[in-house]
Amino acid sequence: MHSLPVIAVTSGEPAGVGPEVCLRLLAGARAGHQGHEVHLPARIVVLADRSLLAERAAALNVPGAFRDWDPALPPTAGALEVLHLPMGAKAQPGRLDPANAPYVLALLDRALAGCRSGEFAAMVTAPVHKGVINDAGIPFTGHTEYLAERTGTPRVVMMLAGGGLRVALVTTHLPLKDVPAAVTQSAVEETLRILHREMGQKYGFADPRILVAGLNPHAGEGGYLGHEEIDVIIPVLERLRAEGMTLLGPLPADTMFSPAVLARGDCILAMYHDQGLTALKYASFGHGINVTLGLPIIRTSVDHGTALDLAGSGQADPGSLLVAVAQAIEMVARAGQALSG
After folding, report:
1. What one GO molecular function would you report for this record (predicted)?
2. pLDDT tens string 204-214
3. In this structure, what CATH number is given to the domain that contains residue 192?
C-alpha cells in the first residue's frame, strides 16, 4: 500500500462545486460512467478545510469518513484522507467571499510544495474563481500562470484533453485585442517545443503530429486577411520542421476540427483560448481535463468552473475531476517507466 503514488487534490473555491466533487473520491474509488466502481491505483489526498468537507457531506448525505493525512500510515478503507487547511471565513454554497481567497491559494501552495518535495507524485486541481481572488486584492489570472510563477518556469503550455482531442494554446487568458501582439515567433516556437517534448513524456508519442492553427480567418488567405501567418507562424514551422518535427499548418481554424483533418494529427496548437477550446468543450464538456505542460511537476485539472449555481445541490458532475485524477496517475506511471528504463 505504501508503494502507491500519492495524488494531491486541491478542493478549490469553497463556495463552488469543488468540495462536493472531491467527496466522490472517498476511499480511493470512483463511480464509473455506468455507476460501477473503478478503483484508482493511488492514494488520494484532498486538500481542504476538514469542516467544509464534513458539512458538505452531511448536507448531501454522502457516506464515508475523513482521516487526517499521514504518510506514515496506510490508507483506511472507506475514509477520505484530508490535508486540513483552515478557511478564512465560513463558506456558504454559491456565495463568494474574498476572505477565503488566501485559503484557496494556500491549497495550491501546499500541494505544489508537496509535489516538489516528493511527498506527492502529482497535483489535481478543482476549480477556483478568478474574480473573487482579484476582489481580495490578489492579482490572479489562472492556475496555469500562478503555478508557472511559483515554480519559476518561464513558459508553460495550457492544454485541454477530452472527446478524443488534445488542444494546446499559445496564449491563454488574454483579452482578444491583446492576442495578436502576444503571438510572436518566440512564443509559438517555445510552445511547440514544450508541446512536442511533453507529448512524448506524458502521452508516449515519440514523434507527435501537431496540427497548427493560423491566427486569422482562412489562415490569413495568403496575406489578404492578415500577415501573422506569413510573418510569424510559417517561419517557425519551417525552422522546426528542419529539425525533424512533424507540423501541419498553419491551418484555417474553422475547418481544422473536421474529422478528415483531425485524423492527420495527434494534437492541436491553437493561437488563443476560444479558437481552440470551443470545439473541445463541445466534444467533451464535463469529462475533459486541463493539463499544464512544461512545469517541473505533473498537474491536471478539471475543464469547468466553480458552477456556483450548482454548489450544494448534489447535482455537480464529478466526471472531469475523476478523469483528471486518472490521467495524473497514468502520467506518474509513464514517468516512472521512463526513469526505470
Report:
1. cobalt ion binding
2. 999 999 999 99
3. 3.40.718.10
